[in-house]
Amino acid sequence: MTLQISFTLNGRPTTVDVEPATLVAELLREQLNLTGTHIGCDTSQCGACVVHLDGLPVKSCTLLAPALAGATLLTIEGLQGAPGSNQMHPMQEAFREHHGLQCGFCTPGMLMTAVALATEKPDLTEADVRHGLEGNICRCTGYQNIVVSVMAGAAAMNAAKNAGNGE
């Protein structure tokens, strides 16, 4: 039996037929061909599959696709810089500039978690970042450059927000 669900995906209305037991990560990767969301553990421990559901970070490897009905979903493919520009999101730019990645497998989940952290609390401290990233595992780095990247990205997001408000 399949269910038809409609939701907003990366700013676009989307309707799909899914089996009730389909995980959001599977839907994204296998049915919608959005392979930026990675599956690293299937147990909600690594954070490589983090997406934003109605503005909140969730691990898509443990969320059933029917939960998307009527919701708004943002994946790494939908993360972007200023509307109408070809720029990267400020957090992506910070990860690039401050060497916050190595192999890149954990990066989409790290970025999505980092954006949520910075949106929730624009003036992040190192302790905030380290605590906020506890659900994301990187097997390549020592996390120092990731922490520096998140703090720089948060500052850039805050500056862009303030510039947009005329402050």
TrEMBL record:
Superkingdom of source: Bacteria
Family matches, as PROSITE patterns: 2FE2S_FER_2
The keyword Metal-binding belongs to this UniProt entry's keyword annotation: yes
Keywords recorded for this protein, A-Z: 2Fe-2S, Iron, Iron-sulfur, Metal-binding, Oxidoreductase
Domain 2Fe-2S ferredoxin-type: 3-79
NADP among keywords: no
Family annotation (Gene3D superfamilies): 3.10.20.30, [2Fe-2S]-binding domain (1.10.150.120)
InterPro entries: 2Fe-2S-bd, 2Fe-2S-bd_dom_sf, 2Fe-2S_ferredoxin-like_sf, 2Fe-2S_ferredoxin-type, Beta-grasp_dom_sf, Diverse_Oxidoreductases
SUPFAM superfamilies linked to this entry: 2Fe-2S ferredoxin-like (SSF54292), CO dehydrogenase ISP C-domain like (SSF47741)
Protein's name in the database: (2Fe-2S)-binding protein
Organism: Bradyrhizobium campsiandrae
